[in-house]
Amino acid sequence: MAEVHDPAEDGDLIAPPPKIAVPEDVAEAIRTLIRWAGDDPAREGLIDTPQRVARAWKEYCQGYGEDPAYHLARVFEEVGGYDEIVLLKDIPFQSHCEHHMAPIIGKASIAYLPKDHVVGISKLARVLNAFARRLQVQERLTAEVADCIWNGLKPIGVAVVIEASHACMTARGVRTPGVGMVTSRMMGVFRDDERSRQEVLKLMGY
Ligand SMILES: Nc1nc2c(ncn2[C@@H]2O[C@H](COP(=O)(O)OP(=O)(O)OP(=O)(O)O)[C@@H](O)[C@H]2O)c(=O)[nH]1
Ligand SMILES: [Zn+2]
């Protein structure tokens, strides 16, 4: 029988995946920005920077290549009669604001009250990342995550609370470090029933 070579077992190092090619017009746009900011894109330390920046932006924006709803396609029905809130709390995320393309760094708490079926818990964070890894405003990010879970799982309620710091406010402009923006979207029972809303907010730590 032919032997299968498993590099991990042999202790061999596995090469990183090949880097994506950066189109010349994209690289040139970044050189233009460097020049405009006051530096020389031809100096040694900046020679490869356009390619790095371009690849970094592809990574920051990889959500454009994802259908967030896809993550909710696989559900589980055997949950032993569990019919209480499911909450994924304080999920860290990064996004970029569509006004300045500056980082938005924060945490999200995502809860739903299931009806008949649940989803693998990691999928809530995957939905969040699929929307966060785009150019965003926090209000839309919050609404998109909640709507996606509402439409995908058809639960009794959805609650999403996002707390984030915007580098366009901390590192430039008004320069107010330490300021956080809080947004929320309540759907179904969490919108219509005060006690359910209070319960989910308490579980989230608010
Ligand atoms: N509502 C909301 N505003 C955001 C978000 N991210 C950035 N902003 C704001 O978008 C606004 C853009 O305002 P403009 O006046 O067009 O831009 P600007 O001159 O750079 O504004 P300053 O940031 O005040 O210097 C700013 O007030 C930002 O703080 C977000 O996620 N939601
Ligand atoms: Zn901004």
Question: Can you summarize the main beta sheet?
Answer: 5 strands, mixed
What is the architecture of the largest domain at the second tier of CATH?
A: 2-Layer Sandwich
Query: Low-confidence parts, pLDDT < 50 over ≥5 residues?
Result: none
- How far the N terminus sits from the C terminus, by CA atoms, comes to 61 Å
Strand content: 15-25%
CATH superfamily of the largest domain: GTP cyclohydrolase I, C-terminal domain/NADPH-dependent 7-cyano-7-deazaguanine reductase, N-terminal domain
Q: What's the gyration radius in Å?
A: 22 Å
Number of helices: 7
Percent in helix: 25-40%
Series of H and E elements = HHEEEEHEHEHEHH
How would the global form be characterised? Answer: globular
Are any ligands bound, and if so which? guanosine-5'-triphosphate, zinc ion
Describe the structure.
The chain is an alpha+beta fold. The protein folds into two domains: 24-60, no CATH class; 71-204, GTP Cyclohydrolase I, domain 2 (2-Layer Sandwich), CATH 3.30.1130. The protein has seven helices and seven strands; from the N terminus they run H-H-E-E-E-E-H-E-H-E-H-E-H-H. The protein has helices spanning 24-37, 49-60, 122-132, 138-153, 167-170, 189-192, 194-204, and strands at residues 75-76, 86-97, 103-113, 118-119, 135-136, 157-166, 181-188. The strands form two sheets. A five-stranded mixed β-sheet has the order 5-2-3-6-7, with helices on both faces. The protein has a two-stranded antiparallel sheet with strand order 1-4. Strand 2 and strand 3 (103-113) form a beta hairpin. The N and C termini lie far apart (61 Å). Bound molecules: guanosine-5'-triphosphate (GTP) and zinc ion (ZN). Zinc ion (ZN) binds at residues 97, 99-100, 102, 166, 168. Residues 27-204 form the GTP cyclohydrolase I domain. Pfam families: GTP_cyclohydroI. GO terms for molecular function: GTP binding; GTP cyclohydrolase I activity; zinc ion binding. Belongs to the GTP cyclohydrolase I family.
